[in-house]
Amino acid sequence: MRILIAVDDSPYSERAVEFAAQMRWPAGSRVLVASVVAPPLPTSTALDAPTAAEPLTVLDQDRRRHQSLIDRAQDRLRRAGFCVEGRLLTGDPREQILDVIEKEQVSLLVVGSHGRTGLARLLLGSVSSHAVAHAPCSVLVVKAA
Question: Of 20, 138, 4, which is closest to residue 81 (Cα–Cα)?
């Protein structure tokens, strides 16, 4: 069985990793942990144009933060005895997760019931809802305890 766990910086995501780590999966199951960095939204006007380095700095900071999330999830899952890989992706989280499912022939997606909150969630939409509606595999949505 090929399992994809999509992580972000929410407590729901942490709960999804913990849930997956405690489950008994079929022998030989492989786990893929992925996190998606959404490109920064433009926030400046023509009068206050950022330097070329500013968007890259924000993107680099986001990449490091998301890689840390992947590393923590991988460590937890390895301690539970799983064979695990990580993927750091860039783009729309909904599209990127569906793309990984297709390319990696994932048979189960595990996600938290909610992701980021506030404006970012409003702009991006609900990744878990999108996955339930569009993923070609089963989707396990884990709620926070």
Answer: 20
Predicted TM-score (pTM) of the model is 0.83
- 88: CATH: 3.40.50.620
Provide the number of structural domains found in the chain: 1
Decide if 1 is inside a domain.
no
pLDDT digits (tens, 9 = 90+) for 73-115: 999 999 999 999 999 999 999 999 999 999 999 999 999 987 6
pLDDT tens per residue, range 119-144: 444 433 488 899 999 999 999 999 87
On the 0-12 / 13-18 / 19+ scale of CB atoms within 10 A, 112 is buried
- Closest C-alpha to 134, from 96, 87, 104, 91: 96
Region for residue 125 given its phi and psi (left: phi exceeds 0; alpha: psi -120 to 50; beta: otherwise): left
Structure tokens at 47: 């009068």
Judge whether 46 lies within some domain.
no
Burial zone of 73 (CB within 10 Å; 0-12 exposed, 13-18 middle, 19+ buried) = buried
Distance (Å, whole) CA 112 – CA 127: 9
